[in-house]
Amino acid sequence: MQNKHLLKLLDLSREEIREILDLADQLKYDQKHGIDHQVLKGKTLAMIFEKNSTRTRVSFEVGMFQLGGHALFLSSKDSQLGRGEPIEDTARVLGRYCDGIMIRTFGQDTVEKLAQYAGIPVINGLTDFCHPCQVLADLMTIREHKAELEGLNVCYIGDGNNMANSIIVGCMKCGMNVSIACPNSYRPDGAVLEFVKSVQDATFTLTDDVLAAARDADVIFTDVWASMGMEDEVKARREAFMGYQVNDAVMAAAHPDCMVQHCLPAHRGEEITAEVFEAHAQEIFDEAENRLHAQKAVMALLMK
Ligand code: CP
Ligand code: NVA
Fold first, then answer.
1. Rounded Cα–Cα distance for residues 264 and 55 (Å)
2. CA distance 272 to 262
3. What is the pLDDT of residue 58?
4. Are the CB atoms for 271 and 244 separated by under 8 Å?
5. Cβ count within 10 A of residue 54
6. DSSP state, residue 271
7. Closest CA to 146 of 216, 253, 218
């Protein structure tokens, strides 16, 4: 892997994504067959959380343990970050103690600055702009279920948020056709809409028509209507996103073998019905599990 950090999928080549997914598959197989890989023995990952988490925190901490290393949890509330210590200084301090940093925060600029100053690998555990670790796990899950990624039709229904941004970039880099259904005022990031223009071997569609986006889909993604940090907008967003729901009608428009992916947590009755969620629970919890394996691969490649 050429990159020293995992800050956003825009930075990775198709080959680097494939390298991560291949190693993730191997680490998953080995973990299930009792084959140990203590490749990060004696190494420490600092995990900074400025937003809540269940999956990201647990999968990184367990992943570090399984690789022979140690992970430590820093919440912005208890650390000096919460009292305004600049990220540049936090970066240089952690760089003296640790071997890698995972950060979940608001601005993408915070993650980029952390990487600029830390002198050790930085991994983005979600920003307002993107969620690269999640989409690597999603690509791994889709490949497990569908064997090949190239040529698959991927549909995302809902907010043009961090997940939408990473799905577009990750899937199109892997040669998958992407269609997004979102309200006009909740479109994906401008940098991502620029990126799609550069892709030669995959198509991109942006529409406000949910059924049109779902037509012939092999994979349907959705995510919450109001992300972390948007708590004040919940009511307005409930109105704006009414109808942007993965339900039986949407699934009927898709390919008969269509998978459903949801990064979780899910709001049943909003972006997805309870029926569709439960019918696709196996795929959705495979996706959650694969966070562990995909991130172990990322850490092994960046921190060894
Ligand atoms: N999908 C995801 O990142 O979950 P958490 O917010 O629980 O970490
Ligand atoms: N878009 C969601 C994803 C949570 C994993 C959020 O940012 O809150």
1. 9
2. 9
3. 98
4. yes
5. 10
6. T
7. 218
Mean per-residue pLDDT for 54-72?
98
Nearest residue to 134 via CA among 301, 280, 291, 5: 291
Neighbours of 96 (CB within 10 A): 9
- The CATH superfamily of 9-131+291-303 is Aspartate/ornithine carbamoyltransferase (3.40.50.1370)
User: Which of 49, 55, 105, 224 most suits a substitution to test ligand 2, by most atoms within 8 Å of the C-beta?
Assistant: 224
Looking at residue 140, its amino acid is: M
Please give the model's pTM, rounded to 2 decimal places.
Answer: 0.98
Domain ranges, ordered by start, for the chain: 9-131+291-303, 134-287
Residue 29: how many other CB atoms lie within 10 Å:
11
The pLDDT of 76-84, averaged and rounded, is 93
For atom 3 of ligand 2, the residue with the nearest CA is: 227
Q: Which helix (H) or strand (E) holds 161?
A: none
Give Cα separations from 281 to 132, 266, 278, 285, 288 (angstroms). 22, 11, 5, 6, 10
Ligand 1 close to Cβ of residue 134 (< 6 A): yes
Look at the alpha carbons of 108, 114, 119, 123 in this order and tell me if their dihedral is positive or negative. negative
Superfamily holding 134-287: Aspartate/ornithine carbamoyltransferase (3.40.50.1370)
Q: Of all atoms in ligand 2, which is nearest to the CA of residue 263?
A: 5
Residue 277 CA to residue 147 CA, distance in Å, equals: 23
**Single-letter code of the amino acid located at 199:** V
| 244 sits in which H/E element | none
**Ligand 1, closest atom to CA 56?**
8
**Of residues 83, 80, 78, 87, the one with CA closest to residue 105:** 87
Q: Which residue of 52, 55, 166, 286 sits with most ligand 1 atoms within 8 Å of its CB, as the best mutation to test the pocket?
A: 55
Mean pLDDT of 74-103: 96
Number of other residues whose CB lies within 10 A of the CB of residue 295: 30
pLDDT at position 175 over 90? yes
